[in-house]
Specification:
α2 runs antiparallel to α10, α5 runs parallel beside α6 and α7 runs parallel beside α8. This protein has eleven helices and ten strands. It has 312 residues and is α/β, with parallel strands linked by helices.
Length: 312
């Protein structure tokens, strides 16, 4: 039985994943404007630091902590990076929390499964010696052997990880497999479980909802679904769908349209007119049969997200 009274955590990754979007580059001023808007939308946590540019991103993270104090900052660090320990020390001074990444496929380094287990234990212990709130993320969780994912998850939890993040790294998962995987993890672990979905098959939002219904505590999202390749689960779709499903997120739904428009402008990535929730056509009626009683043909009340119904 899913507990709809439980608040679902939302971690916005626009300032990390967004910069992996082709031809997107945010200046520090742009990033600060986006962070401010996310704070105004009552997003509780933003993921700022990418594992490929840790020290560079930490400079901006410190600025966010100074100027937007209630916004929790987080980031990612590769467990096997040559500078991992230096990055962990600096992140401990700059972020509210961070996650250590350990890919769970043998095709990604470190290639040996035994080495992955040993190295993760060492790096997690080192991290927790410097910071109390450290999680572990597992890229390729939906592509690996489930038994190994469970084994390394047990080790992470035993080692003190405060959160596990399950990544559908190549966007190949479907809601049925995600629900089964998260349910299995939920049955074995009491720590927070987050799900990070990519949209390569157009299923990121559906997969995110499936994760929540299986017991996930939180989700990674990006505004307008920005991100690598086909992007990620979008903040606006996930927040509204969870609300309509009776789940609590704390997100100010009336800010979704404004936030979407701002990120569209700052990123230069145009939003499809057919985009769910915030697209130009989402509440624009043309069919004569719709004009008589338009709300019969709408998934949500326009006032929820601060937009108006239109007629063509």
């Amino acid at each position: 039985m899913v507990d709809r009274a439980k608040k679902i955590g939302i971690r916005d990754s626009t300032l990390r994943e967004g910069l992996d979007t082709p031809r997107v580059s945010f200046s520090p001023q742009q990033k600060l404007r986006i962070a401010t808007l996310l704070d105004q939308a009552d997003v509780p946590e933003i993921e700022i630091v990418a594992p490929s540019r840790v020290l560079e991103d930490l400079e901006f993270a410190r600025r966010v902590r100074e100027q937007i104090p209630r916004l929790m900052t987080s980031g990612l660090i590769y467990s096997y990076g040559p500078n991992a320990r230096e990055e962990i020390k600096t992140a401990s001074e700059s972020l509210h929390r961070f996650d250590i990444l350990m890919p769970v496929l043998e095709r990604r380094q470190p290639f040996s499964l035994a080495t992955k287990l040993t190295l993760l234990a060492e790096i997690l212990a080192f991290s927790l010696a410097h910071h109390p709130d450290v999680g572990v993320g597992f890229p390729h969780s939906t592509q690996t052997d489930v038994q190994f994912l469970l084994e390394i998850s047990h080790q992470a939890v035993k080692g003190g990880a405060r959160r596990l993040t399950i990544y559908d790294t190549n966007g190949s998962a479907d809601p049925f497999s995600v629900r089964a995987l998260i349910a299995r993890l939920r049955s074995q672990f009491e720590v927070a479980i987050f799900f990070h979905g990519h949209n390569d098959l157009g299923l990121a939002t559906a997969n995110a909802l499936a994760a929540v219904r299986a017991g996930a505590d939180g989700l990674d999202v990006t505004v307008n679904g920005l991100g690598d390749r086909a992007g990620n689960a979008s903040l606006e779709q996930v927040a509204l769908a969870l609300h309509l499903g009776g789940f609590q997120t704390g997100i100010a739904l009336g800010s979704l349209k404004t936030t979407s428009e701002m990120v569209e402008k700052e990123s230069g990535v145009l939003l499809s007119k057919l985009a769910p929730v915030v697209g130009e056509f989402v509440l624009r009626h043309k069919s004569p049969s719709h004009l008589i009683d338009p709300d019969l043909f709408e998934a949500f009340d326009p006032e929820l997200v601060g937009i108006k119904r239109e007629y063509d």
